[in-house]
Amino acid sequence: MTTLTIWANAFLTPAGEDLLRESTKQHRLILAEKLDNVLAIGASDPRLQEAEVLFGQPDPKEIVQSSRVRWVHLSSAGYTRYDTKEFRSALQARSAIFTNSSSVYDEPCAEHLMAFLLADARQLHWSYENQRGARGWPQNPIRERSRLLSEQTILIVGYGAIGERLAELLAPYWAKVIGYRRKRQSTAPIPIIGSDQLPSTLAEADHVVNTLPESASTRHFFDSERFGRFKPGACYYNIGRGATTDQEALRTALASGRLAAAYLDVTDPEPLPPDHPLWSLQNCYITPHTGGGHVTEPIRTVQHFIDNLRRYERGEPLVDRVW
Fold first, then answer.
1. pTM of the predicted protein model
2. Measured in whole angstroms, how far is the alpha carbon of residue 156 from the centre of its chain?
């Protein structure tokens, strides 16, 4: 087996670091300065230039400058800052592989969306606010606004790994689930629409779930024009990237009553400033980019890299290959 130099700056717990060290002991491991959290951007490290394999959140500029790197594995699902022509060209010039950790995050993100959908269907937020405040007994109004998912249409915009898992979780609820992709999939287990059908589908959906990645083509994908096409009283969910939503247009749609509610796990910027108007809207519910979080996240992230490392050692195709 060829000995590799592996550079890593992924967010590691002690248990995760121990697993990484033990699983790579036949190789040379360089541990860079640890990240403060799973979404942090890594600092510059000249030792990166010594490595063939990179794991974590390496500086894209340093990767472009490297003549040795053959495989980059991100510890996140998102890869916005790496999605540039210069970066792609640099990796393609040396036939390097680029993978991410999408498989680590599709399950928790899908479950987070299920929590949003069920909380809205059963109006749990209303009961919670009542308990914190008036402590009345608004039984009839809450019952009248509670809904069955079996009677709802749910549109998943950016149908990928998270959307596929969400559709599986929704199957027992008998909801009508539709996916949107720029390029249709003929093998998907649910109906998939393209751009031509999006306006009419927005008009019939009770829930619109945004799992879009951030790119030049998706920035402010949901703007005033698209929010204006929503079915009156629909709900909007974003667990993709904050920049895919025009937040002023969203605020207007919520304040006017066009949208019944919004459930956001991502915002633009992050953290969202305490005085931002979305915080104070009574029909906007925000979680601080925790959708992918779970207690075993650091271990699963390292294990996913190790599983791919074994494939790399054997010359097999890697999982979650971006390009």
1. 0.92
2. 13
